[in-house]
């Protein structure tokens, strides 16, 4: 399918470096490449090669991975290796309503919106207005902002203004156990919960709090990811590994009713 005006795409050179472009059929300014004639994108399709200033670039639409990797970062982001686990473990799908605590720079928010659109919604509680504003700019860049809303305040005590109950509650905050009294009523029975914390003592506190509250299937994990170096005549694991980023704690809310 040909590229449309106002669509976000990227140009990738032979070394894998990406230059981002919002398609316009007039003159377009591309960072590090200067101004180019946007009408050249009219007849291009994904995977085509375009020559700019004597260099060849392959043109692609971004997937969710590329969008997350190219965010304007301020606060630390939840990276794809953890975001993918959160999406699967919390069974996030089209039409779901998600209550998120902590927008950060909008990395996980972007992944959640991509999963729930076009019939779902993500409502985010963020302590700092500057984080919400940055996340908003990143989300708007993806075109998914119509499925997103946010409020500024302390998730441990703020009123939550959202329609209905959430299918999943996902918390990226240092003391999620202190927010359970306030947020638990907004999670539907059978809904899923995830807490994202960097330290073991935090993981212990939220796991114990969830068990005390009678949540089902409470468990914690962390993700390690290591690439492979593949060369003619030899393959070995990379010396570098994407190791600890945070502990992921998952649980599912019981109704408390008995038949």
What does this structure look like?
The protein is α/β, with parallel strands linked by helices and about 260 residues long. The chain is built from six helices and 15 strands. The chain has helices at about 65-70, 80-90, 105-115, 130-140, 180-185, 200-210; strands spanning about 10, 20, 25-30, 35, 50, 55-60, 95-100, 120-125, 150, 165-170, 185-195, 215-220, 225-230, 235-240, 245-250. The strands form four sheets. The protein has a seven-stranded mixed beta sheet, sandwiched between helices. Strands 2-1-6-5 form a four-stranded antiparallel beta sheet, with no helix packed on it. A hairpin with a 2-residue loop joins strand 13 (about 225-230) and strand 14. Helix 2 (about 80-90) runs parallel beside helix 3. The protein is globular and about 70 Å long.
Summarize the structure.
With 259 residues, the chain is of the alpha/beta class. It is 22% helix and 34% strand.
Q: Please describe the biggest sheet, giving its number of strands, its sense, and whether it closes into a barrel.
A: 7 strands, mixed
Helix content: 10-25%
Low confidence ranges = none
Total number of helices:
6
- Beta-strand level of the residues, as a percent range? 25-35%
Query: In total, how many beta strands?
Result: 15
Order of strands across the main sheet: 9-8-7-10-11-15-12
Distance between the first and last residues' Cα: 54 Å
Rg over CA atoms:
21 Å
Mean pLDDT: 92
Order of helices and strands: EEEEEEHHEHEHEEHEHEEEE
Overall 3D form: globular
The SS-based structural class is alpha/beta
């Amino acid at each position: 399918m040909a590229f449309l005006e106002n669509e976000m795409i990227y140009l990738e050179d032979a070394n894998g470096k990406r230059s981002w472009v919002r398609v316009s059929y007039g003159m377009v300014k591309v960072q590090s490449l200067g101004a180019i004639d946007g009408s050249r994108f009219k007849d291009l399709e994904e995977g085509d090669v375009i020559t700019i200033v004597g260099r060849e670039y392959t043109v692609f639409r971004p997937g969710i991975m590329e969008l997350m990797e190219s965010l304007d970062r301020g606060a630390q982001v939840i990276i794809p290796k953890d975001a993918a686990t959160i999406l699967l473990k919390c069974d996030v799908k089209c039409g779901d309503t998600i209550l998120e605590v902590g927008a950060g720079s909008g990395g996980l928010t972007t992944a959640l919106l991509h999963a729930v659109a076009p019939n779902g919604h993500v409502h985010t509680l963020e302590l700092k207005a500057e984080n919400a504003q940055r996340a908003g700019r990143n989300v708007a860049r993806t075109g998914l902002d119509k499925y997103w809303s946010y409020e500024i305040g302390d998730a441990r005590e703020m009123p939550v203004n959202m329609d209905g109950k959430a299918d999943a509650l996902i918390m990226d905050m240092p003391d999620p156990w202190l927010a359970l009294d306030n947020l638990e009523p907004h999670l539907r029975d059978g809904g899923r919960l995830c807490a994202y914390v960097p330290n073991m003592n935090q993981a212990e506190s939220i796991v114990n709090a969830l068990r005390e509250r009678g949540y089902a299937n409470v468990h914690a994990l962390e993700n390690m990811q290591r690439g492979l170096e593949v060369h003619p005549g030899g393959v070995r694991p990379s010396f570098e590994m994407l190791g600890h980023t945070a502990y992921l704690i998952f649980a599912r809310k019981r109704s408390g009713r008995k038949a």
